Amino acid sequence: MNVEIYQLGQHDTRSFNKLLALFAEVFEMESFTPPTEEHLEDLLCKETFFAFAASVSDQIVGGVTCYMLDQYYSTSSYLYIFDLAVHPRYQRLGFGRRLLQAVILRGKSLGAEEVFVQADDVDIHALEFYRASGGLAEKVTHFTYSLKR
Q: What is the dihedral of CA 127, 68, 101, 21, to 10 degrees?
């Protein structure tokens, strides 16, 4: 199996669209409509955003997206993992760990202080994955405020 983990660059919008389709499938987002190519290219150009893809024989089977957040308590940044998913056929084969390790290495190279990720309490598989990969769980309550009418 020819496995590759790589960071998406500015012109990788086609791969980014494939990754978003994978996220929509894994996260069961039935009414997902992908954004425009221009939006994805703009996002990939930002220094505060990055994405890694996992591919097998040029087919995207997993990926992770991250935001770099500047702090005001420190000069170093935090990295926030927004989404991490692996196609069910390729789960439990080390792809998630390799994607997480790519984020950690990228964070270290950027001088980030910490990587963090949220997982829903009902998502037992995600909780088990993050615990098994060395993540330290913190008990928090997440609030959202919808801005759509």
A: 70
Give the ranges where the chain is alpha helix by DSSP (H). 13-26, 37-45, 95-109, 124-132
Q: Degrees (nearest 5) of the Cα angle 83, 130, 82?
A: 15
Instruction: State the amino acid at position 11 in one-letter form.
Output: H
Q: What's the CA gap between 102 and 84, in Å, rounded?
A: 12
Domains belonging to the chain, first-starting first, are 3-132 (3.40.630.30)
CB burial readout 48-63, b (16+ within 10 A) else e: eebbbbbbbeeebbbb
Q: What tens digit of pLDDT does each residue of 77-118 get? A: 999 999 999 999 999 999 999 999 999 999 999 999 999 999
DSSP SS3 for 87? coil
User: How would residue 21 be classed by pLDDT, with cut points 50, 70 and 90?
Assistant: very high
Both tokens of 122, joined, read 């009902």
CB 100 within 8 A of CB 90: no
Determine how β-strand 49-56 pairs with β-strand 59-69: antiparallel
